[in-house]
Amino acid sequence: MKNIILLAPPAAGKGTLANDLKEKYGYVHLSTGDMLREEAKEDKEVKDALEAGHLINDDLVFRAVKSKLNKLGNTNYILDGFPRTLDQAIWYSNYLKENNKDLGVVIYLDVDKKLLEKRVLTRLICPKCNISYSTSNKKFLPKKSGICDICNSALENRSDDNIESFNKRYDVYQKRTSKLLDFYKNLNVLERITEVDPIKVLEKASEYVK
Ligand SMILES: [Zn+2]
Questions:
Q1: pLDDT band at 136, cuts 50/70/90?
Q2: Cα 158 to ligand 1 centroid, rounded to whole Å
């Protein structure tokens, strides 16, 4: 199996794919936030930065990523939210080279903006189990309107699920990610998935990670 860097705009289904890959192949899912919180347990500088709520600088992020990857050894992993910038991507490539490791594959969920917008605006989330529902897709409708299937909590809209906030998040994402996409395209490790049905997305991803 190949290690994965997962890139996707907001609401493209990144969480679902990461979960499916975890279940099907035993990948470890690494988000930047989780790696930083783990590092904070034994690294006072990271701990202080997190507690102060400052923007975490790259040096600290690199420390967290490095110690997590060193601990993982040969376990396959999905990077989610890292690398975020070209600088981080270059650092990560150098890290891999120094450690004789393969980058694996970069999977980009290339979903049409109009569809993402629709998903965001019709998304309901269970505040307790964090599961998403959708009022625009029969497959993801809750069984009882407005109520979580699993825990019966009242479903909520995410506070940032509105059109202005979506457009802002999408633009920031596009700007940042276009550089990453070029970088990985040049390395010949980029795979785009344009499917939107989670089952088909997983099928495609399964081909790429072999
Ligand atoms: Zn629930």
A1: confident
A2: 14
Average pLDDT over every residue of 144-152: 95
pTM: 0.87
CA of 203 to the centre of ligand 1 (A): 28
Residue 13 alpha carbon to ligand 1 centre in Å: 19
Would you say residue 161 has pLDDT above 90?
Answer: no
What band does 153 get if pLDDT is binned at 50, 70 and 90?
very high
* CA 128–ligand 1 middle distance (angstroms): 5
pLDDT digits (tens, 9 = 90+) for 66-100: 999 999 988 999 999 999 999 999 999 999 999 99
Cα of 142 to ligand 1 centre, how many Å? 10
Cα of 141 vs centre of ligand 1, distance in Å, is 13
- Measuring CA to CA, how many Å separate 108 from each of 17, 52, 144, 194? 11, 33, 34, 9
CA of 131 to the centre of ligand 1 (A): 7
If one counts every other C-beta atom within 10 angstroms of the C-beta of residue 120, the result is: 22
